[in-house]
Amino acid sequence: MRIWIILLVVLESAIAACPVAGHGDTVHTLRLANGEWFDGHAFVRRDFYSVEGALRNHWSGAVEETLDLSGRFVVPAFADAHSHLFSDTAGFAADLERDLRAGVLFVKNPNNPTSLVSAMRKRVNQARTVDVVYANGGLTAGNGHPAQIYDGATATASPRWIDDAYFTIDDRKQLELKWPRVVAGRPDFIKVYLEHSEAHAARSHDPTRRGGFGLDPALLPTIVRRAHGAGLTVSAHVASAADFRVAMTSGVDEITHLPLERLA
Questions:
Q1: Burial of 245 (0-12, 13-18, 19+ CB in 10 A)
Q2: What global pTM score does this model have?
Q3: CA atoms of 216 and 204, how far apart (whole Å)
């Protein structure tokens, strides 16, 4: 018997305060009928409703459309597509137990120290652990995001994690120089950082903006071509609508989170 599985992406508490809009910035009210939903003990045939971007088990208002699930099973994705757990061995047992208890079996880590990943690969992707893919250090500009996270927010901070937890690339010459080291870490995919690329020139020359910018957007198409040539997909960190557009026109494969402002 073929069992159909429906993957639901459940947005957490923020969704109730800020409903997800689509299709012309309109939030749609839907009835999800005849699905098999897990109640904590067994799968039960019941209806749910999508109202203002949140799932509800009861709704007496108008419904725009009914989706007949025809007895298909509704389950979580069993995956965390943006997690920085399993970056190093510290706390591994606790992190593993937490993810397994939550039903997370697959993890995508979009930034982790390259120097520590070899030890982690020996612990994950085993029969009784989670499966993890790693980006290793992401690509950003000098003093760009996430330098302030790993090495501190001040301009005088000691760059302990540079070209390890993050790679700084300011021009094509640096890309040529550092690319062999990037791929030598055997990343499963490439992470790039865009951070208000519409103001890159001004932010990257402002000493008070450490961590407040990312790659020069003009470099991104070249980076994407190099990554694809090496058989690697590219995931982009974006913070603005302009970043989103740059990522799309440059040919990236994935946006790691939505822009932090509305798309115009």
A1: middle
A2: 0.77
A3: 9
Ordered alpha helix ranges (H), the chain: 14-17, 92-101, 117-121, 147-151, 172-184, 200-204, 220-229, 241-250
- At residue 262 the predicted structure's pLDDT band, cuts being 50, 70 and 90, is low
Using an 8 Å Cβ cutoff, are 85 and 94 in contact? no
- Are residue 155 and residue 241 in the same domain, yes or no? yes
CATH code at position 196 = 3.20.20.140
Length of the chain: 264
Positive or negative torsion for Cα 202, 205, 211, 217:
positive
Tokens standing for residue 66:
């009914």
Q: Please check whether residues 155 and 254 belong to one and the same domain.
A: yes
Instruction: Tell me the two tokens of residue 220.
Output: 């991104």
Q: How far apart are CA 140 and CA 4, in angstroms?
A: 41
Per-residue pLDDT for 98 more than 70? yes
Statement to judge: residues 243 and 153 lie in one domain: yes
C-alpha to C-alpha distance for 167 and 145, rounded to whole angstroms: 10
Q: How do residues 42-81 score in pLDDT, each as one tens digit?
A: 999 999 999 988 899 999 999 999 999 999 999 888 999 9
Digit-coded pLDDT (tens) for 116-133:
999 999 999 999 999 999
